[in-house]
Write a structure and sequence with these properties.
Layout lengths: L18 H19 L7 H15 L5 H10 L3 H18 L5 H18 L5 H20 L3 H13 L7 H18 L5 H19 L11 H12 L2 H17 L10 H21 L16 H5 L1 H8 L8 H10 L2 H20 L9 H13 L1 H4 L6 H19 L5 H15 L8 H4 L2 H23 L7 H31 L10 H17 L30 H4 L1 H11 L3 H28 L4 H25 L12 H10 L3 H10 L9 H21 L8 H18 L12 H7 L4 H20 L4 H17 L3 H6 L4 H8 L11 H14 L3 H23 L6 H20 L2 H25 L4 H15 L11 H20 L1 H4 L10 H15 L6 H18 L8 H15 L2 H5 L3 H17 L3 H20 L4 H10 L2 H11 L7 H17 L1 H14 L3 H18 L6 H18 L7
Helix pairs in contact: 1-2, 1-3, 3-4, 3-5, 4-6, 5-6, 5-9, 6-9, 6-10, 8-9, 8-11, 9-12, 11-12, 11-15, 12-17, 16-17, 16-19, 17-20, 19-20, 19-22, 20-23, 22-23, 22-24, 23-24, 23-26, 26-28, 27-28, 27-31, 28-32, 30-33, 31-34, 32-35, 34-35, 34-37, 35-38, 38-40, 39-40, 39-41, 40-42, 41-42, ...
Length: 1206
């Protein structure tokens, strides 16, 4: 058993700690840490948990300063020291207000002396925690600067007069000077240099970051006050660090070949100094941790420095030091030094790769360069010649690091981000790129081109899958870089032509195309196998089966969407060259594919042949992906405009129209004289022919799911963009393409007929593969939706796969298809049915299916997987028909089929109550029935709608009583699919208005929510799909006066508990919006109906909401609220204040009394008094809420300065 000490005791009001007690604490800490950090400690879980509990209790000791200082003096055990420093860190954050600044400064001196003496012996975690404590102490001392002194300082700086001295701040200035002297003094011992560097790094990071960690126990205005003070030392700190780094590298000691301890220490010192430079450059960066991200209310305060800088004159002294710092870091010598630093460090690491280098040394060097390139976003800088020189220096420097080689894909990604940041300077203003010198810009472009090709080769030749995510990010970044840079170059070319007098751009049109060609060819090459490309196959250890429902999300069009879009945009800069390259590669691979298939059919396949088949199909897949993004710029299933660059390429080629038409008629792409875009389409059609031959030969195993899916997507995007274009939408039009694909072109109909024939053929012969069939059925639905002649083409077909498929569209012919696919086929078939016979057959089909299911239930033969499967299949078929119905057909379907089915659904659900999928299928079927477009059907009367809704209520009633509804759920959203299906149905009912059936709609939604109040547990609302619909339905319950007034206690309790949960949990913006809407509606009812029974009843439920909203918004929430959310909170807050004035005043008074800082207490009180003075005469109206909103957002931002985050 472990010996126990009372860890929970306070160190206050007791005798000084003796050396014996300190030694006893050290022994206990050694025992606990040995168990907790020992890898074998997990073998005895109870002992390990006990040790963990003791260590946690130790870190929570109040006033542990004397104890921890004693432990630090006496122990050299790293684990014990780490626990002591953690305990001190918590105490400084939470208990520092109990001590005056002198006591805190003494603690700082003790810790800094400890760091100086032991920095070379301590573990890094001990040094880092100690440095962090010192930084926290210094920041808190600076933050307690008297307000009067601060105001006087601002006035003095603005007037250019001498600044009044403040003892505490002067003390901190002396500390910073001392730290800088320790760093830059050549003869200072290394331990002090290391300690000083770590101290400055921690201090900059503590002040730079603005989050809950750095604001713990300190008010925002004090944090920012300290931050501004340390900001005035940035120039001094940066200069000292850069000078010392230069000294270290220029000395003979910094040579990794020596591998002495002194050399290693010196490298760790340099690493800390580089971190200091990084934090200095990132101090005001919008891309660093100092930014709260987005539109946070706190940024109203934090951005004042930047706003002041943009508004002040050159002679204003308030921000003089920041301006000087900016000029210093933007100097060409500093830029060159930082780039040289990176290349020097990299060469040393390459020289001795296995040595113990400081962690993240290269990454820190690159971060310095990145934040340096982002300095124009840190402060507003004049876009003058000096700025252009700075950008030029960045470009020349980046050439060195791109030529220096990379340390892996992560290093490549950082460099890609750096050059992207540098390229952003070219689009700052229209003339920025013009001012950059050609001798800077051209080498940058050339180096970036070589670097990109090198990275693409690196990606292609890496065989491991564990770096795929980093590779993806790197390729995305590089292609994004090239697109934006080439676009800016193109803009400079166009502007130079229109300028007066005309100017000469640094890169002409031919040069622009040359750069784009290299990038396009390199990207294509890295995705193709040899001999066409340089791709090395990845080692796929685990091949996962693709879920049909998630197939679209896992498609490469989505997985690689960002880079493919950028590729398409870059490829169109020289569209004619890209067309030529893609055609050559596609035609070659299609030829290889056809020859290989011929070999397989005539002879027995070999393992090598199977590998070739796999590689060829992978190449075809990627070539088709690139082709679709080259030709189109719209999403899948969207109608888009033809790309002007593609039309221009077709025009500029000047192909003979008659030869192009003849080749198109014969599907002959071998002639070099035909239009290049038409030629690409023809080679694609050749691939379609090969797939049809595979299907018709019965060798369907050789049809690739991946290639067919990509080909189908390409056909869809092409047909919805280039087929039957509206000529009036375009300023230029290609005669060749218009003759082939235009509105009146006979070849366009022939092309569409071929696409449909190919699609039908694949569907018929690939029934066993639902992924292929689903993709092709979706293509037919898209074509039928956007091109009116598809129906005629399919129905008038006399032979071939199209005719066979149309015959199989009949419901009783749907054999061999999965239910999900059959649902899509029925959706298509329903749109094609035109005569009475088809509809009668459809109704008969469903009636027979339903009769069989009901017979099984009546004979108690339904408790089997077979019968359940039949019912689920029936639901899928019915949903497919519902999705395809128009006004007329939905009326017939409902009256002849759906009414009796819905009436029997309660019985069906009761019979299948052990099968969860049945309840999901029933609610999905009801959902699609409600979606039927029957709103304009005059023959529907309100009674029919009421009858339907009454049956729905019965279904929900049976479900709520079933064991499945009450079963325990898992921790995944997928465990609540039945609840989600029910919520979706109720939400759709909420949106419907069938005749005069609003009362029936209300009844369904109310009944559903009442039953869900028992089924849905609070933890289920953590799931996004559940809570998004759930809170929308809560709004529906209250957004109409009569509905709100008639809510029962169960629903009101449900609404209030859900509001309180949302205020506590902070789910997301949409839920917040719904919650504030509910609060506003209910409060307005209470206010307007004051004195009435309904107002008193609602007020009884609403009383807990105001304290919850006050706590979430005022006490701690304003730190995390953004302006948009604050504007949503305002009306709800004002509404509650109007209805519960006494509660509101009590909450305000409690908040004021909790402020232990006199100045903060005074400011909080004044803010509330000023707010109340402006709103006390306002009544609860919409205009008053808008007026309050205008006051509330700045009030909230200012209040956060004085309310401590605890």
């Amino acid at each position: 058993m472990m010996k126990e000490i009372n860890c929970g005791m306070s160190m206050n009001d007791r005798q000084p700690i003796t050396d014996e007690q300190i030694q006893l604490w050290i022994q206990q800490l050694e025992q606990w840490t040995n168990i907790f950090y020992n890898e074998h400690g997990a073998q005895n879980p109870m002992l390990w948990q006990e040790a963990q509990s003791k260590l946690v209790q130790f870190q929570k000791i109040h006033d542990p300063f004397e104890l921890c200082m004693g432990i630090i003096k006496s122990s050299r055990n790293s684990l014990v020291l780490y626990q002591a420093t953690l305990c001190l860190k918590n105490a400084v954050a939470n208990d520092f207000k109990k001590f005056d600044m002198n006591e805190l400064f003494k603690l700082f001196q003790f810790l800094y002396e400890f760091l100086c003496s032991q920095s070379l012996e301590n573990d890094m975690c001990v040094n880092e925690t100690t440095a962090l404590i010192c930084a926290m102490i210094l920041k808190r001392i600076a933050s307690e600067r008297p307000r009067a002194t601060y105001t006087a300082t601002i006035v003095s700086l603005a007037q250019g007069s001498s600044v009044p001295l403040d003892k505490e701040v002067d003390k901190i200035a002396q500390v910073i000077v001392t730290l800088c002297n320790h760093i830059k003094e050549p003869n200072e011992v290394l331990s002090k240099k290391v300690a000083a560097a770590m101290m400055i790094s921690s201090l900059l990071l503590e002040c730079q970051m603005t989050n809950r960690s750095t604001l713990l126990g300190i008010r925002v205005w004090k944090h920012l006050n300290a931050r501004k003070h340390f900001e005035s030392h940035l120039k001094q700190i940066t200069e000292v660090c850069l000078a010392t780094i230069n000294w270290a590298f220029s000395s003979n000691l910094l040579n990794p070949i020596n591998q002495t301890r002194e050399t290693q220490i010196l490298f760790h010192l340099v690493g800390s100094l580089i971190q200091c430079v990084e934090h200095s450059l990132a101090f005001n960066s919008t891309d660093s941790g100092c930014s709260l991200g987005g539109d946070r209310v706190l940024r109203v305060i934090q951005s004042r420095t930047i706003n002041m800088l943009s508004q002040t004159t050159e002679h204003d002294n308030r921000l003089k030091t920041l301006r000087e710092w900016c000029r210093m870091v933007m100097a060409p010598s500093v830029v060159q030094f930082l780039f040289d630093l990176y290349t020097t460090v990299k060469s040393m690491i390459n020289m001795v790769p296995g040595w113990s280098w400081p962690s993240n040394l290269l990454k820190n060097c690159l971060n310095c360069l990145y934040y340096l390139s982002d300095v124009h976003n840190t402060v507003n800088i004049e876009r003058d010649d000096a700025y252009a020189e700075f950008v030029g220096s960045l470009m020349i420097g980046s050439v060195k690091i791109m030529e220096a080689g990379t340390q892996g894909i992560d290093d490549s990604y950082q460099i890609a981000c750096l050059i992207t940041s540098i390229s952003m300077h070219t689009s700052e203003t229209r003339d920025t790129i013009t001012k950059i010198k050609a001798e800077h810009f051209i080498p940058f472009l050339d180096a970036a081109q070589r670097f990109t090709c090198k990275v693409f080769t690196q990606v292609a030749t890496t065989s491991h899958t564990d770096v795929e995510e980093e590779e993806e990010k790197t390729v995305d970044a590089l292609l994004d870089f090239w697109y934006h840079l080439l676009r800016n170059i193109d803009a400079e070319i166009r502007n130079s032509v229109g300028s007066n007098p005309p100017t000469s751009p640094k890169v002409n049109t031919e040069g622009l195309k040359a750069y784009s060609r290299v990038i396009v060819e390199s990207y294509i090459s890295c995705h193709l196998h040899k001999p066409l490309g340089q791709l090395v196959p990845k080692n796929e250890d685990n091949i996962q089966e693709v879920d049909l429902d998630q197939a679209d999300e896992q498609d490469d069009n989505n997985l690689h969407g960002q880079q493919l879009v950028s590729f398409g945009q870059i490829a169109r800069f020289d569209a004619l060259h890209t067309a030529k390259i893609l055609f050559e590669l596609l035609s070659t691979r299609v030829g290889h594919f056809e020859a290989l298939l011929t070999q397989f059919i005539n002879t027995k396949e070999s393992p090598d042949g199977l590998k070739d088949w796999e590689y060829i199909n992978d190449d075809l897949h990627w070539l088709l992906l690139m082709l679709q993004h080259y030709l189109t710029q719209t999403g899948y299933g969207e109608v888009g405009f033809m790309c002007n660059e593609i039309l221009d390429a077709s025009l500029s080629f000047q192909a003979d129209v008659q030869k192009t038409l003849q080749a198109f008629e014969k599907s002959d792409y071998n002639s070099n004289e035909i239009d290049p875009i038409v030629r690409l389409v023809l080679v694609t059609l050749k691939l379609c022919q090969i797939e049809m031959s595979i299907c018709q030969s019965g060798k369907t195993a050789w049809l690739s799911v991946q290639t067919n899916g990509t080909l189908t997507t390409l056909l869809s995007r092409f047909c919805l963009t280039y087929l039957y274009p509206k000529e009036s939408d375009y300023t230029i039009i290609s005669e060749n393409m218009n003759y082939c694909f235009g509105q009146d072109a006979p070849t366009a109909d022939k092309f569409l007929r071929f696409v449909i024939e190919h699609t039908c053929c694949v569907i018929l012969y690939m029934k066993s593969d639902p992924q292929i069939v689903k993709k092709n059925i979706t293509l037919l639905i898209q074509l039928q939706h956007f091109h009116s002649n598809v129906m005629n083409i399919m129905l008038e077909a006399q032979e071939g796969s199209m005719t066979a498929f149309v015959r199989q569209l009949k419901p009783d012919e749907l054999t061999g298809f999965s239910p999900q696919v059959a649902k899509l086929i029925l959706k298509l078939a329903t749109r094609l049915f035109v005569d009475e016979k088809d509809w009668n057959n459809l109704i008969d089909f469903f009636t027979d299916k339903w009769a069989q299911i009901m017979l099984c239930i009546q004979n108690n033969q339904h408790q089997s997987e077979v019968v359940t499967g039949k019912f689920l299949e029936f639901c899928d078929f019915a949903i497919g028909v519902c999705e395809a119905c128009d006004d007329e057909s939905s009326e017939r379907l409902f009256e002849q089929l759906l009414v009796p089915i819905v009436k029997a659904l309660p019985q069906v659900l009761g019979a299948f109550n052990n099968f969860e999928n049945v309840s999901i299928a029933i609610f999905e079927l009801l959902y699609y029935i409600v979606k039927l477009p029957m709103i304009n059907i005059s023959s529907w009367d309100s009674q029919a709608a009421k009858s339907f809704y009454e049956n729905c209520i019965e279904v929900i009633k049976v479900y709520s009583m079933s064991p499945l509804a009450k079963k325990p759920r898992g921790n995944e959203e997928e465990d609540c699919e039945d609840i989600i299906a029910l919520l979706n149905f109720a939400h759709e009912v909420m949106k419907r208005d069938w005749g005069n059936s609003w009362a029936a709609c209300d009844a369904v939604v109310k009944f559903t929510m009442e039953k869900l109040s028992v089924i849905i547990k609070p933890e289920y609302l953590q799931f996004p799909r559940i809570r998004s619909i759930y809170y929308r339905l809560l709004v529906y319950l209250v957004d109409e006066d009569d509905r709100l007034c008639n809510l029962n206690d169960t629903l009101l309790n449900m609404i209030i508990s859900s509001i309180l949960l949302a205020l506590q949990s902070k789910f997301d913006k949409d839920v917040d919006n719904h919650v504030y809407t509910i609060i506003g509606i209910m409060c307005r009812t209470i206010y307007l109906e004051k004195g009435q029974q309904i107002a008193d009843r609602l007020a009884k439920f609403m009383i807990p909401v105001l304290p919850a909203l006050f706590h979430a918004t005022i006490n701690q929430g304003s730190f995390t609220l953004n302006t948009e959310t604050a504007e949503m909170v305002g009306p709800a807050f004002f509404s509650l204040r109007c209805c519960f004035m006494n509660v509101y005043q009590s909450l305000v008074q409690d908040l004021i009394e909790k402020q232990d800082d006199p100045f903060a207490k005074s400011k909080v009180k004044t803010l509330f008094e000023n707010l109340e003075a402006k709103i006390h005469k306002l009544t609860l109206t919409r205009s008053a809420c808008r007026e309050f909103n205008g006051l509330f957002v700045p009030f909230l931002a200012e209040l956060q300065n004085y309310v401590a985050v605890m």
